[in-house]
Amino acid sequence: MLTIGELASYTGVTVRAVRHYHAKGLLPEPERDYFGYRRYDGAAVVELIKIRTLAEAGVPLARVRELLQADEEEFAAAVADIDRRLRAEITQRQRHRERIARLISGDSLALPPEVVEYLDRLRVLGVDERIVQAERDGWIPLAAHSPERVPEWMARKREQIADPRLVDFYLTLGQALDRDDDDPRLIELADKLAAYLTRMAEERGEDYVDDTDIDSSLVKLMDKLAFDTVPPARRLIELLQQRGWTGWTKLERVPPAPGRRV
User: What is 1-69's CATH number?
Assistant: First the structure.
């Protein structure tokens, strides 16, 4: 006859697990001997090994008793059902792992994959992280407001950043981030951006330059996010208006402001 410690040792479980199986009604609790100790026979060893094997296979303890009492056909059907459940759980957990992996950079928390890919592309091109953050912060409310249009906008964005002249604009803006409002680089940026927008409007039409069609209140919110993250952008828009364009989130052609373009 075996003590509870010996039973646990022979079957590869802990004493705590044996007591837990007793509490769950899976393993009958034997009578105590004269000294008050539980004593287990060979049948208890066999039964406990079966319980341990089923539990290690992922069978919920609530179903272990059912399987121990099932005939061959019932056992096979129950195991098949448990296998289907485990496979579904594995699939779900894999999806969770994929989501966690996408969250590592932080961008994926509130953005669709194509926007995250676009932001990563800006980083690869060497765009200053503050500009990338401004883009990210603007895309979060935009994607939430019009998720159905994100693929369309992203297709155009990918096409635009394939143009070396627009990439050069981003890089020049990055170099001007820590400079004063009267820095000549901002004037250079305004000239570059105005020339780029005018050329795109002539080649592709006015709708290509701006086709966002979003509420003015959302435009103001996104502009403020950009200006807070990239303060020189506000001065850049002032310079841009003197060159016939205005807006950050929503670009529009306007009559050039009178006076010298500085």
Answer: 1.10.1660.10
